[in-house]
Amino acid sequence: MSKIKVGVLGAGTMGAGIAQVAAQSGHEVVLVDVNEKAIISAKEKLNKIIDRLIEKGKWTQDFGDDLLGRIKFSTEMQDFSGSGMIIEAIVENVEVKHAVFSKMEAIVDKHCILASNTSSLSIASIGSVLKNPERIIGIHFFNPAPLMPLVEIIPAVQTSEKVAKEAREMVDSWGKVTVLAKDTPGFIVNRVARPFYGEALRIYEEGVADFATIDWAMTELGKFRMGPFTLMDYIGNDVNYTVTETVFAAFYYDPRFKPSFTQKRHSEAGFYGRKSGRGFFDYSENAIAVEPNKDEVLGNKILKRILAMLINEAADAVFLNVATNEDIDLAMTKGVNYPKGLLKWADEIGIENVLNDLQELFNEYGEDRYRPSPLLKKMVRENKSFF
Ligand SMILES: NC(=O)c1ccc[n+]([C@@H]2O[C@H](COP(=O)([O-])OP(=O)(O)OC[C@H]3O[C@@H](n4cnc5c(N)ncnc54)[C@H](O)[C@@H]3O)[C@@H](O)[C@H]2O)c1
After folding, report:
1. What is the pLDDT of residue 66?
2. How far is the C-alpha of 23 from the C-alpha of 174, rounded, in Å?
3. What is the pLDDT averaged over residues 303-313?
4. What is the pLDDT of residue 151?
5. Which side of the chain, N or C, has fewer Cβ within a 10 Å radius?
6. Are 296 and 139 in contact (CB under 8 A)?
7. Strand, helix or coil at 177?
8. pLDDT tens for residues 348-362?
């Protein structure tokens, strides 16, 4: 069977990576961007990546040459003609996305799948402008796309089963780990991961511990690859704060997703993180690293609280049929490198213990933010585990 031609719209951070992934799997790829500079820069970056992999002995010169030869770099959307699937990765703006999806649909035939890599917009809304809306789907890669194994597949209410199945099979054939998520804010990863940042910020705001100590508790005792404050500095406080605000609004201001003043102020001050030289931590040349307080009792208290909130979010996503148990655990281990699936972790801790931790927080604060998911209560009543 000959491989379909794949179109990618937007040659920025994500689009260039997605084009590389598809071309690596042998597809003819057309990478289109309105901005010629973005096209030139994407081509230069890809050349560098190929050279490096050849140098390291991972790829042969022929493989690299063939891969590059399969990608057509263009500023003309008309070049999408004949594609079997197009993945859009342009600015996160629904009006601009609407305009490009209408335009793309007019160029391809009716069997072409039209996908969006959006992180925060609804797939149903993006697809609403199509004449054949059953072809819309969310295909959400993680950054950097060639290296991160996870891809969330998000069918909208309009999407046909055939399109959902074909899109998932296609991305699976690219060697990615796919999970199926409902078209709800944040899909799986950007929803379930919110307390990793939010609860860490709240713990800091209450004066329980400083940034370094909270990070130490999560990495040393929890075995997370990066602490929440180091990770927020890495993502950028401006970017991470905006995602939190968007998710909060999209959930009709559910207090569970409430953004933090601490992060807002850091962002307002220009303390974005690594990219600006200062965030929660100082990244300047002669900066002295802040020593954490390595008190294990305090550290375990911090870990237990953040973990309980993460598990609560994961359990609630199961409760509301956002995804299956298996897919939620896969998403968090393969999309954000958690040391363990949250639901598997909950089984190990004991569902009753997790519920008790949440109930204690809820009783202490009286805030809706700490309400335990009804699923955890039901599971304790019925003596069930996730796996
Ligand atoms: N950056 C991430 O970590 C990440 C992760 C997952 C998903 N996403 C999503 O992927 C999408 C792209 O994000 P990014 O970080 O790659 O952005 P980016 O700013 O790096 O790149 C966007 C590119 O789109 C181009 N563009 C803008 N309008 C266009 C148009 N009308 N037609 C053609 N090209 C156009 C721009 O010139 C730019 O090169 C967004 O929807 C974002 O939510 C981003």
Report:
1. 96
2. 9
3. 98
4. 98
5. N
6. no
7. strand
8. 999 999 999 999 999
Query: Is 40's C-beta closer than 6 angstroms to any atom of ligand 1?
Result: no
| DSSP state letter for 116 | E
Write the CB contacts of 367 (distance below 8 Å, at least 6 apart in sequence). 255
Q: For ligand 1, is residue 89 a contact (CB within 6 Å)?
A: yes
173 in active site? no
Catalytic (active site) residue 348: no
User: Is there a contact between 155 and 136 (Cβ–Cβ < 8 Å)?
Assistant: no
Same domain, 200 and 318: yes
Q: Is the pLDDT of residue 235 over 70?
A: yes
Identify the active-site residue in 122, 190, 237, 240. 190
185 inside domain: no
Ligand 1 centre to CA of 106 (Å) is 22
Residue 144, preceding peptide bond in cis (omega within 30° of 0) = yes
Catalytic residue, chosen from 28, 88, 105, 152, is: 152
327-350 per-position pLDDT tens digit: 999 999 999 999 999 999 999 999
Measured from the CB, is residue 126 less than 6 Å from ligand 1? no
Catalytic residue among 83, 105, 116, 140: 140
Annotated catalytic residue: which of 119, 122, 240, 267?
A: 119
Tokens of 264: 């807002």
Active site residue 237: no
Q: Quick check: is 190 catalytic?
A: yes
Question: Is residue 386 one of the residues assigned to a domain?
Answer: no
First to last CA, the chain: 39
Q: 69 in helix, strand or coil?
A: helix
Starting at the edge strand found earlier in the chain, the sheet holding 150-155 runs 71-74, 29-32, 6-9, 85-88, 113-116, 136-141, 150-155, 177-180
Q: Ligand 1: which of 75, 79, 91, 125 to mutate, most ligand atoms within 8 Å of CB?
A: 91
Statement: residue 174 has pLDDT above 70: yes
Provide the residue range defining the domain that includes 60.
6-180
Handedness of CA 163, 169, 172, 177 (dihedral sign): positive
Instruction: State which ligand 1 atom lies nearest to the alpha carbon of 141.
Output: 6
Buried b (16+ CB within 10 A) or exposed e, 67-86: beebbbbbeebebbeebbbb
The model carries a pTM of 0.95
Looking at the structure, do residues 159 and 236 belong to the same domain, yes or no?
A: no
